[in-house]
Amino acid sequence: MWKRCCATVVLLLFWSGLFSAALAHSPYFGQSESIDHPDFGKIKFSVLYGDGIFFADPSQVVVFDREGYLLAATPQSDVLLIRCDYSDDTPTCHVYDELRGLVLEPDYKQWARSRIIVEEGRPNAYPEIMDIEYGFSQRPATFAETISFEVAGFLNAPGDTLLSVLWWGVAWSFIARLFWRLKRNGWQMLPMRGWAVVSGILSILAFLGMSFLAAYAWLLKPYSFHFFLFAFIMGALIAVALTRLKAVVETS
């Protein structure tokens, strides 16, 4: 019963996400962080999203002052995360490109007032149309930085993390059920009754179908390999544990 309920909820959320992603929309801000800069006053780092229509919304991190003037902008990417350090006298923010494993650091020597990018608190430009990037240098992330940024990404989007784990938990439950059934039968695949064969085939097709939908969802909302690995493994562990508990209850 729990598996059917979870599958229904996940599927409804998935298709609602596909529908909303296909609708044209104005540019919008995602994650935003504010710091005080000695030369530019109070500034804001924000992830600016455009309109990808049928695929992921292109994005870049833009930095602007309180009057809305653009000060710097990263290259475009699909998954960007901002993390700020307030421990020093001069706080600063770094940007992490999850797909390419790059850290983008502010290069203040290149910073300069450009066009007005924010009006009445809302962005007035699409990153794919604006086509401006300056004021950042990039380098590969270290192993420690990768782990810390990925963990920050999990915490920054707990709903997406939970939904992904739930999705793979439901998908893996179809395979885990076959695993425990084979183990109960002494790892003998034959002979098998007609319904057992049909049930096994349907379970495999269900797993493959949910994997295909997850791959298509990645085109709409990409994420890093580390995020996928976490959700994939956690979903498998949860599915194995719950189906094992169910198998024990049924045989007791």
Strand order of the largest sheet: 1-2-3-4
Name the shape in a single word: elongated
Quaternary structure annotation: single chain
Helix coverage percent: 40-55%
How many strands, what sense, and barrel or not for the largest sheet? 4 strands, antiparallel
- Round the Cα radius of gyration to an integer and report it: 23 Å
What is the ordering of alpha helices and beta strands?
A: HEEEEEEEEEHEHHHH
Structural notes for this entry:
With 252 residues, this protein is α+β, with helices and mostly antiparallel strands. The chain is 47% helix and 22% strand. It has helices at 2-21, 127-130, 143-156, 158-184, 194-220, 225-251, and strands spanning 28-37, 41-49, 59-65, 70-73, 80-85, 92-97, 102-106, 118-119, 122-123, 136-140. Strands 1-2-3-4 form a 4-stranded antiparallel β-sheet, with no helix packed on it. The model has no long low-confidence stretch (mean pLDDT 83).
Short description:
This protein has about 250 residues and is an alpha+beta fold.
Task: Give the topology.
Blueprint: H1 2-21, E1 28-37, E2 41-49, E3 59-65, E4 70-73, E5 80-85, E6 92-97, E7 102-106, E8 118-119, E9 122-123, H2 127-130, E10 136-140, H3 143-156, H4 158-184, H5 194-220, H6 225-251
Antiparallel strand pairs: 1-2, 2-3, 3-4, 5-6, 6-7, 7-10, 8-9
